[in-house]
Write a structure and sequence with these properties.
alpha/beta; 13 strands; Hydroxyproline O-arabinosyltransferase-like domain-containing protein; transmembrane; transferase; HPAT/SRGT1-like; 3-stranded mixed β-sheet; single chain; globular; 8-stranded mixed β-sheet; 2 domains; Spore Coat Polysaccharide Biosynthesis Protein SpsA, Chain A; 372 residues
């Protein structure tokens, strides 16, 4: 990185505190929604449920007027990643299934547009021709304080500022997401669409969060129990949110109380706060994704998130916390490529896990030069 690059990154970090203060002041003067989606008295009644956590509005997606059917609201799928083997094999599997649901299925009702891997290693890798990629610069050495996820918001800031993105909406996803089926644009009426995480608890940590989301910004319930992924949000909204997300992430990491309280999900809290500061609420979709082995059925989910290890004995019984006689855990392949044709789970293992392994196997069988 040249001297100009170092100067740029130094300025970014140096002004983080000033920027977050600016963002909070601006956001405090903005009109923030304090109700659940569909309860705004100034709008006409909506067909969406007023329950903050709702099922997929299939009737809304399938029985719209002719004009709605003919006009797709395309979104661009974006995934941040390092150049590690661990992130790379997951991105290749994910992109395989993205293509299966778009290029190989042109008549699907999906509103999925383009795809970008935002590579925050600072330099191209050998998969640029396989996966559409934008190369972002990492934070300066030491800025992430050993928490590499802090590169994610900074990578999004660069991409949103420098790349030409045709679609009006963005789906923020992750390498360890497998798309089960085509995804419609679930966002509505200026609201984002997001998955609710049970471990994101703004009310529980209100005293800590008030350092970053002051009283004048509104009730703590304005902070949704979400991370940045999966989220579908308007491109213009994300361009406003992303710098604040970066600044709040850095500020939280520098704050000992916040760092201890939020741990490995700190950046998720930072996105939720940034979204609230800019008055962007979210419709919460429990069916957006499933997380095996805890979610056992595919149901109506769009995404399989394989963040947890799946350990079973040969009778198909879950042995979580203990390495099973059969297992699939992405961390087993942190510095090696998973082999093709992984062994299938024994009888009795839930559908979600079986489907996950089948989909990984199909991808690796069809991706050229797998493991090279």
């Amino acid at each position: 990185m040249g001297s100009c690059g170092n100067l740029l990154f130094s300025l970014v970090i140096s002004f983080s505190a000033a920027l977050i203060t600016y963002n909070i002041i601006i956001s405090a003067n903005a009109s923030l929604r304090q109700d659940f989606p569909g309860t705004n008295p100034s709008t006409k009644s909506s067909s969406l449920s007023v329950d903050p956590i709702i099922k997929m509005p299939r009737e809304d997606l399938s029985s719209s007027s002719t004009s709605k059917k003919s006009k797709k609201r395309l979104f661009h799928t974006a995934v941040t990643a390092s150049d590690s083997i661990y992130n790379t094999w997951q991105c290749r599997v994910m992109y395989y299934w993205f293509k299966r649901h778009t290029r190989d299925n042109p008549n699907s009702p999906s509103e999925m547009g383009g795809f970008t891997r935002i590579l925050h290693s600072g330099h191209p890798d050998r998969f640029m021709d396989e996966i559409p990629t934008f190369v972002a610069q990492p934070l300066p050495d030491g800025a992430d304080q050993g928490y590499i996820v802090l590169n994610r918001p900074w990578a999004f800031v660069q991409w949103l500022q420098q790349a030409h993105i045709e679609e009006d909406y963005i789906l923020m996803s992750e390498p360890d997401h497998i798309l089960v089926k085509p995804i419609p644009n679930l966002s509505r009426d200026g609201l984002g669409a997001a998955f609710p995480f049970f471990y994101i608890e703004p009310k529980k940590y209100e005293n800590v969060l008030r350092k970053f989301f002051p009283e004048e910004s509104g009730p703590i319930t304005n902070i949704d129990p979400i991370g940045n992924s999966p989220v579908i949000v308007g491109k213009d909204s994300l361009r406003k949110i992303a710098p604040t997300w970066m600044n709040v992430s850095l500020a939280m990491k520098k704050d000992p109380e916040a760092d201890k309280a939020f741990g490995w999900v700190l950046e998720m809290y930072a996105y939720a706060v940034a979204s609230a500061l800019h008055g962007v609420g979210n419709i919460l979709y429990k069916e957006f994704m499933i997380q095996p082995p805890w979610d056992t059925a595919i149901g109506n989910a769009y995404i399989i998130h394989y963040t947890y290890g799946c350990d079973y004995d040969l009778q198909g019984k879950l042995t979580y916390g203990k390495i099973g006689e059969w297992r699939f855990d992405k961390r087993s392949y942190d510095n090696i490529w998973p082999p093709r044709n992984l062994s299938m789970p024994p009888p009795g293992v839930p559908e979600s896990v079986v489907t996950l392994v089948k989909m990984v196997n199909e991808a690796t069988a069809n991706i050229p030069n797998w493991g090279s």
